[in-house]
Design brief:
By secondary structure, the protein is an alpha/beta fold. The chain is 38% helix and 15% strand. Bound molecules: zinc ion.
């Protein structure tokens, strides 16, 4: 497993804001044993594959030190930091790695604020959407962040190549994702869900996907559903481990099915 990371993502902060470099630093300390790769910034073309030009320009020209909305600040050079985070997602997709970067992205929709939500939720460009669009393959996006990925849903709603699954706390920000819509499968949960209900719900969610048709699984890996965190669903360390095992098993199940299909085909070709 390769970790995509740049020290640059620790450079910016906003006084008193909850989205801060410390969250990355803590994870960094635990992941030192892995191979690290340095990302390149995403291109304009990559951004424009999921966002409107007007919105990209809005972030590019944001006045340093201002607020874009009630909860999303514009620290100096935020455009460059957001480009690098999107570039990290692209590299993670290419390398089948894990992007340990900020700013996050899943609340950012095509024109910024998504599905009628009032704020960007500290997101600027939708990193996972940019990476999935570039791969252009049949993809399952699993969003395990404690908040609903309203931006990701908005971008991929109705997209035949993408299935979006989100397990999230409700009610809380952004207040969307109460029910499933077409290719976007939503599983709202109470703050008191805990490991057991969460994992049962995850299993139920994954059972609704024809995994044999999925070529790529992309994870929006926010960890704020951990007990006591911002969007706590009462998950423990062991709960997260089990999420990892279930996601890992998807690849094995898909491999087994592909192998069975191949064997059937070989048997069918044998002269009788
Ligand atoms: Zn979150």
């Amino acid at each position: 497993m390769k970790i995509i990371f740049s020290e640059k993502c620790l450079e910016y902060s906003w006084p008193g804001h909850i989205e801060r470099p410390e969250r990355i630093r803590k994870a960094l300390d635990l992941l030192r044993q892995y191979e690290f790769l340095e990302p390149e910034p995403a291109s304009q073309q990559d951004l424009l594959s999921v966002h409107s030009r007007e919105y990209v320009d809005l972030i590019k020209n944001a006045k340093a030190g201002s607020y874009l909305d009630g909860d999303t600040p514009a620290p100096e050079n935020i455009y460059e930091y957001a480009l690098l985070s999107a570039g990290a997602a692209l590299l993670a997709a290419q390398e089948k790695g894990f992007s340990l970067m900020r700013p996050p992205g899943h609340h950012a929709g095509r024109n910024g604020r998504a599905l009628g939500v009032a704020t960007l939720g500290f997101c600027y460009f939708n990193n996972i959407a940019i990476a999935v669009r570039k791969l252009g393959k049949s993809t399952l996006i699993l969003d395990i962040d404690g908040h609903h990925g309203n931006g990701t849903q908005e971008i991929f709603q109705g997209d035949q190549k993408v299935t979006f699954i989100s397990l999230h706390r409700y009610p809380t920000y952004p207040g969307t994702g109460l029910s499933s819509q077409g290719n976007c499968l939503n599983f709202p949960l109470s703050y008191s869900a805990g490991d057991s209900l969460y994992l049962k719900t995850l299993e139920q969610a994954l059972s609704q996907v024809e995994i044999a048709n999925v070529k790529v699984v992309g994870i929006s890996a926010g960890f704020d559903a951990h007990q006591g965190d911002l969007a706590s669903l009462g998950l423990t360390h062991e709960g997260y481990r089990e999420i990892g095992r279930k996601v890992g098993a998807l690849g094995e199940a898909s491999f087994r099915r592909a192998r069975r299909r191949l064997h059937r085909r070989i048997r069918g070709q044998r002269p009788s």
